[in-house]
Amino acid sequence: MSIATFLLNGRKNFTAFYFNHGTVHGEKAEKFVTKWCDDKGVPINLGHIEDSRHEYDTRDWKGPQEFYRHARYSFLKQYGDYRIILGHHLDDVLETWLFSTFHGNSKIIPYCIGNCIRPFMLTTKEQIRAYAVRHDVEWIEDDSNRSVDYMRNRIRHNIVPEVEKVNPGIRKRIARMVLDCYNKENDLYYI
Q1: Whole-angstrom distance between the N-terminal and C-terminal Cα of the chain?
Q2: Measured distance CA(104)–CA(75) in Å, rounded
Q3: 138-142, long-range: CB within 8 Å, 24+ apart, which pairs?
Q4: What angle do CA 140, 141, 143 make, to 5 degrees?
Q5: What is the pLDDT of residues 12-60, one digit of tens each?
Q6: Rg (CA), the chain
Q7: pLDDT averaged over every residue in the chain
């Protein structure tokens, strides 16, 4: 919602995209985003998983998150004529780096995948939240983000605070890694 508001305040014409993963939150978020777009006169393209349990059970996915990610990017790939801005931020990059490092294959989230770009990878979640507060941006959060039953949430809530105690400059180090990997060929922005 912060990115959409940022574009709207900059008088940019854009189309919103929303992909409903077929969860309770997905339904609430779709209604929320659709209403916001209707109120602001922003066109929106919607996608959704129709029968997620059946398709998830019948394919060789490593887990539901991989299944949802694949479905989401398949939807976005249909719109190859668009340059789609994704909301990944520096905290997402840190969590992904830790997650992948724990599995023996350190990775930085790519700046670009197909027609999707991530120009806010140097912006922290707190900076995005502060922007939202300053500009009266409404948003909703998925309740499942608080559950440490999911590996990423366990990393976010339990491990990142411990890493920050050991290395208070970890976000600066991760930002440097992002810049080293991607800034030579892409533009990164701050809000």
Answers
A1: 12
A2: 30
A3: 138/1, 138/32, 138/36, 139/1, 139/2, 140/25, 140/28, 140/29, 140/32, 142/23, 142/25, 142/29
A4: 135
A5: 999 999 999 888 899 999 999 999 999 999 999 999 986 555 455 546 6
A6: 17
A7: 88
Kindly list the structural domains of the chain, giving each domain's residue range(s) and its CATH number in brackets, ordered by start.
2-182 (3.40.50.620)
Q: CB 131: neighbour CB atoms within 10 A?
A: 17
Sign for the CA dihedral angle at 89, 92, 96, 102 comes to positive
Q: What is the pLDDT of residue 15?
A: 96
Query: pLDDT for 137-169, tens place per residue?
Result: 999 988 888 888 888 899 999 999 999 999 999
The band of 191, judged by pLDDT with boundaries at 50, 70 and 90, is very low
In this prediction, what percent of the chain has a pLDDT beyond 70? 88
- Contacts with 173 (C-beta within 8 Å, 6 or more apart), sequence order: 167
